[in-house]
Design goal:
heterodimer, A: 115 residues, seven-stranded mixed beta sheet, four-stranded antiparallel beta sheet, 0% helix, 55% strand, B: 109 residues, mainly beta, 58% strand
Amino acid sequence: GAVVSQHPSWVICKSGTSVKIECRSLDFQATTMFWYRQFPKQSLMLMATSNEGSKATYEQGVEKDKFLINHASLTLSTLTVTSAHPEDSSFYICSAQIQGVGTQYFGPGTRLLVL
Amino acid sequence: GESVGLHLPTLSVQEGDNSIINCAYSNSASDYFIWYKQESGKGPQFIIDIRSNMDKRQGQRVTVLLNKTVKHLSLQIAATQPGDSAVYFCAENNNDMRFGAGTRLTVKP
């Protein structure tokens, strides 16, 4: 149990375009989902915390107008990278937290390459 | 600010030996810790967790030890196998999760 999926697994796009990444909890309801970014050989950096039905909470230094997060249901959160630039190229990982349980379960990640 | 960190960035062990990966944390109020394994190009995978009311927890081939006095956490892997090669992160969970830098474990055949 506790499976989290992400789609797409990788994406290549042109600079200036927008990219949407989906995060789904497949066999449980997640009241809270998290979005992380990971650059090569670095740790995961929390970008934002997403609660179902409310606005996401962004970490300091993360532009909320650039990284749009929508947590429309208890099983789906989306991250949209707007007007992507090469420096946004990274590995984006989501996680989902079961209500009342501290453990987060991670998706497989989405590799974004902006040309 | 308070943080979770790791002592060593890399660890190389011989196949069959035991591995010990260490982690220091600085938030004395933390009451829940998790170890994750991340293979190249994949998301972190839950290994084992421990709450602060315990000092040891065992899983299959893995043991986590918690020393609250010195704010230290360790992950022990018994009979390390090539498939254990990955980056291991400890994380402190207080509604959101903070990761340390990670330790890359390499298992030599």
